[in-house]
Amino acid sequence: MKRGYLLALLLGASTVTLILIGTKWPVPSAAAYAGGESLLRSSSTPEAAAANLGDEIRMQNWDRAYASLANKAQFTEPEFVHDITGYYPSLRTYATLENAEVFPLHESADDAEMRVKLHWSTVVGTYVSTRDLHVVRNGDRWDPEWPIVKEPIVPPQVIAVNYLRWDVIYRGPGDDWGIQDVEAPHVRIVDMHPVERAEGVVILGELLNEDVVPAYVSVKATLLSKDQSPIATEGSFDKISHLLLPKQVTPFLIDFPNVAMSEVGSVRMVPSSTLVSASADPVIEIEDQQLNPAPGASLTGQLINQSGQVVNVAHVLGTFYDKGGQVVWVADEYIDQALLPQAPVPFEIHIPQDLASKVSSQRTVVATYSSGGSQ
Amino acid sequence: MRVRWALLIGGLAMAMSALAIAAGESMNLPKTIEAGSSFSIQTPGSGNATLYIVGTGQVLKRDVQLGQALFFAPGSLFNAGHYLAVLVGDSFTETGAFDVVPAGKPANLTFLAKPSRLPVGLHDGITGAVYVFDAYRNLIAAPTSVAFELSSPSGTVQRRILVTRGGAAWTDMDSTAQQGIDKFVVRVGEISSTRVVGQVPGDPCGLKMTAQPSGRQIHLVTDAVRDCNGNAVPDGTIVTFTETFNGSQSTIDEPLKQGMAQVTISAHNGAMLSVASGVVMGNQIRWEK
């Protein structure tokens, strides 16, 4: 009993001591997160200056980040903030910076070039944006220059839009059960096959809205073993364009991690569709689509918003085919900036290294979201 | 000792009641009653009793002067099904059973027509199923003659005369070649029910575009897009224009407007222009200028 009291006393005393030490001499990161001193180290090297800027951006300490720039005379602080968070609401606006990696490109006695890779986290996953900073010596310290990218200015104008819009009235709760309801759109899987990858089995395919009304679509797949017992069921989640206008085709990809193809006897596919209100606007042109070979195989191009409304989030889905026209991969990219009318925005979808040589052609579709309306 | 006497007396009383019921006449219950119709039950003996009628979704309780007929007004029992009648007197209980059957005259139809929208020219593409009910929503299981009639926008009419089985009848009809609204009617005697079925155009057929220079760009416009039966494909249908040039590709998904789709795309000498809608390919144009 006595030993128990002693142990409790010892633990209590240790805890109080550690709290006192932590309060008096906190580690820098803890102090920074608690809103005290920043994490920043002295900007005595170009790397440290670039890293400090990354830390200020991560903490959204815009005043200090802007103050640390050597070229702040070229733009205002709001312009600097908008360059990072987006001029219009977009994926960037709601992203938080996880960390910034700094890679020296070139260094001399008075200036240096640093590549900063900014790792952002968003609701749709992570993305990386890269900026090359010019860092200049200023006495015994280094100051970064921010490579500002000013948002293109859309001239004031009126753009007449007369695209179709579909509205739906469903049956009411008081209607008799025999009363007709609006028919769900007819959709069809026009291509599907499973592929074995290192991470597991992946189901690739394409879905067509063969109806004359818009459809909100999704696809579920169930892997069945050779004795027809289910192994796992997964959905396409966001690896699909959920809104399909009449005769529109979307690719889909369904992941089954940790499943080997040898276990799979057959696949049960369940496409589902719901009739939804939708608009045929905006129309997005996908220009200059290029398949770039390995290493770093990718599909690049640019999106041009042909409508008058700002598209806040664009999701680009690429379907890659082999010479026989069979789908070999589906990949996607969310565009982190808003699409302004007629302003081209580049995209780059990465193709897995081992599949790049098989890719012969591609088809790209864009799903869009505008905060002002449903699309 | 007292308890034993009490048990003995109680047992004798119950035995006497049972003997009385066995010796007496039983309730005069009808075998079947048509839903909603009036009926009467003749009770035996004399004295007072209570009659309970318990059935599907309905319970009736009546105080009875034994030896007299008990009348039930029209609409007293309206749910078809098997009913139990229990007559409870001071010293006896008597039970009996009877059925309430649907009224013979159809009064309501539930008509399911599917789909509400389908492409033109589909054999047996439209299904109609009807359930025949009486005025109290009881399914009439007796065979009943039913007439289905589908009128298409072109004026053609498809008719089927069927007899219900177990209260239901169903049929398949074809969608015709012309788009529009079909009127699907089912008739049973003097009552009918109508549904509408939309016949919509099928896939585009013979999709064709033309290209014209427009400054430094090319203006691509399709002919009026129609299906293989000549129906105009509805506005909003996506048409995909593709320009392939020097290993680079540009695509635009453009919805049909007033029956046609048109886009303006960058002009490249030697570019291959193609058009498609869904899984249907259109023509290709090689741009030379």
What would your notes on this structure say?
The complex is a heterodimer of chains A (375) and B (289). Chain A has 375 residues and is α+β, with helices and mostly antiparallel strands. Chain A has three domains: 36-145, Nuclear Transport Factor 2, Chain: A; 167-277, Immunoglobulin-like (Sandwich), CATH 2.60.40; 281-369, Immunoglobulins (Immunoglobulin-like), CATH 2.60.40. Helix content of chain A is 16%, strand content 42%. Chain A has a four-stranded antiparallel sheet, covered by helices on one side. In chain A, strands 8, 9, 10 and 12 form a four-stranded antiparallel sheet that branches. With 289 residues, chain B is mainly beta. Chain B folds into three domains: 2-101, Sandwich (Immunoglobulin-like), CATH 2.60.40; 108-200, Immunoglobulin-like; 209-287, Immunoglobulin-like, CATH 2.60.40. Chain B contains one helix and 22 strands. In chain B, the strands form six sheets. In chain B, strands 1-7-6-3-4 form a five-stranded mixed sheet, with no helix packed on it. Chain B has a five-stranded mixed sheet with strand order 9-15-14-11-12, with no helix packed on it. Chain B starts with a helix and ends with a strand. In chain B, 31% of the residues are buried. The A-B interface holds A 162-164, 166, 176-178, 180-183, 190, 208-214, 245-249, 280, 283-291, 301, 306, 362-365 and B 110-117, 131, 193, 195-196, 200-201, 203-204, 233-239, 247-255, 257, 263, 265-266, 277-280.
- Structural class assignment of chain B: mainly beta
Would you state the CATH class of the largest domain in chain A?
A: Mainly Beta
Overall mean pLDDT of chain A: 89
Gyration radius of chain A, rounded: 27 Å
**Roughly what is the average pLDDT of chain B, rounded to an integer?**
89
Fraction of residues in H or I helices of chain B: under 10%
In CATH terms, what is the architecture of the largest domain in chain B?
Sandwich
User: How can the largest sheet of chain A be summarized?
Assistant: 4 strands, antiparallel
Give, in order, the helices and strands of chain B: HEEEEEEEEEEEEEEEEEEEEEE
Sum up the overall morphology of chain B in one term: rod-shaped
CATH fold field value of the largest domain in chain B: Immunoglobulin-like
CATH topology of the largest domain in chain A: Immunoglobulin-like
**Rg result of chain B:** 37 Å
CATH class of the largest domain in chain B: Mainly Beta
Note the gap between the termini of chain B: 125 Å
